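Dear Dr. L.,

I hope this message finds you well. Following up on our conversation about the binding site, I have prepared a predicted three-dimensional model of the protein together with adenosine-5'-diphosphate. For your records, I am including the exact sequence and ligand specification that went into the calculation, followed by the structure tokens. Please feel free to forward this to your student if that is useful.
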Amino acid sequence: EREEKFRLLADSMPQHIWTADTAGNLNYFNRSVYDYSGLTPEQISKDGWIQIVHPEEREANAAEWLKSVSSGNDFLFEHRFRRYDGEYRWQLSKAIPQRDAAGAIQMWVGTSNDIQEIKEQEQQKDFFISMASHELKTPITSIKGYVQILQSTYGKSEDAFLKKSLKVIDKQVLTLTRLISDLLDISKIKSGSLVLTKTEFEITAMMQEVVTQVQHINPDYLFSMSGNTAVVYADRERISQVLINLLTNAVKYSPNSKEIIIKSFIEDDQVVVSVHDTGIGINKIDQEKIFERFYRVEGKDERTYPGFGIGLFISSQIIQRHQGKISVTSEPGKGSAFYFSIPLIN
Ligand code: ADP
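The resulting structure of the complex is given below.
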């Protein structure tokens, strides 16, 4: 009776539900799996459940599943399932091991949810970001050019208001340009077309250039740099971009303490660059999330600090593509230290 009750429960769920034995063999599917796939229990047991999965995801799917079964860690995977009419739709599958009192795995219980619409919306959003940033690039480049001409023409003018206005426009155009190129980078990361152009260069020379540049825009902050130098083989532009981002954040989130310390040191065949500030800091929960796309810390001051929450995401992607690491330590009210490492040339 109890089994009948649970079967009824599982069969009335719109999600796909399945179970597996300790060796990872799937041994039960609810009705929704048969309705969706149009397959009979005999067909599934003959050719396996993997026949429903899109051929492009089969290999990774089987590998991930095996990994979970052998490690006992939860299974989480996105893949397309073939519907009875031949259409593939995206699903998010999750499986959790059920353990006995002693902690030994007894079986696995899994669910798959249709995420096709979420996927499509995400694609539309990515497409929009890509289009919008491309379209914004041309006018902003033109404005930038004209501001430069105006500055060189009227830079020595007596008109203080004119000079100040041009300076403000120049600074704001720079902010806009950064924002647009960040959005373009987001699109590149999403489509997998963020290419690295690696060369050999000395890390401290690059750091010095970046610090000078950021110091120029923020004359009331004190930047001090020290540490060991090393030659790395990396994308100089991209690594500079990461450092600019960390320094700009250090300034932005330290409105009342103006000292920023930049260090470089060698650790385990890696060169580590750190940026310390004594600003507002970040609490533990947020520290784990700030490297995610569009993540911003929420709080009463949130509007005081402009931004999109994409700088650290781009930085972490750049560092990951260099086989490096990026991390943060911080204490609210005391300040933050960001670290990134890239392998030394060997
Ligand atoms: P943005 O600054 O545009 O919001 P980022 O991706 O650069 O985006 O940073 C994500 C979030 O991490 C920020 O919104 C901020 O809350 C937090 N953060 C980043 N750097 C610092 C810092 N140096 N001090 C305090 N908070 C920071």
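In brief: The pocket of adenosine-5'-diphosphate is lined by residues 249-250, 253, 277, 279-282, 290, 295-297, 307-313, 336 (CB under 6 Å).

With kind regards,
A. P.
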